[in-house]
Predict the 3D structure of the following.
Amino acid sequence: MESNVSPQDLFRSDDFESTDLAIVLGSGDPFLRHRIDTAVTLIKANRVPRLLLLGKELEGCTEADRMRSIALDAGVPCTQITVEKRSSDTVENAENCCHMLRTLPELQGVRTIALVTSAWHMLRGLMIMRHHLPAELTLLCHPAMAPGFNSDDWRSTKLGNLRVRKELEYIGRLLNDEYRLP
């Protein structure tokens, strides 16, 4: 299937006052720090009551545990953090997240979710989450901004251009695998 997705389609953001949960997708540095800082800002502004941190193991520690540590250091109470650390990629994040939403008592009643990931990763994260999570959940995009990787400045850096090109390739593969654009 040929994708008609343009680079600007990658960058999504929704306006919202609050949601029931923020799902934070893990990443390597420097994006991990931007993502968790964005989520901490949401929780400190009382826009979300709980963070669900997702991430694979890197260098002896999971991305989710690293984000948890940063959130705790920033003053987020441990009672407002749930961690998923068995996933190895975004698809497994979504599958495990779906299971957790069905089975964990602290995640019962969630109806609206703020998806926190890097701006350049938002469309792929949204496509994957929508494919795996129950249809009745409302997913809202809240991108973490990183200089040189945002909708207004990715063209200005070699790494920004590379990241956008790779994302478009990933999305093309997802579309071939029966994922749909939102």
The CA atoms of residues 148 and 158 lie 9 Å apart. The chain has one domain: 7-176. The chain is about 40% helix and 15% strand.
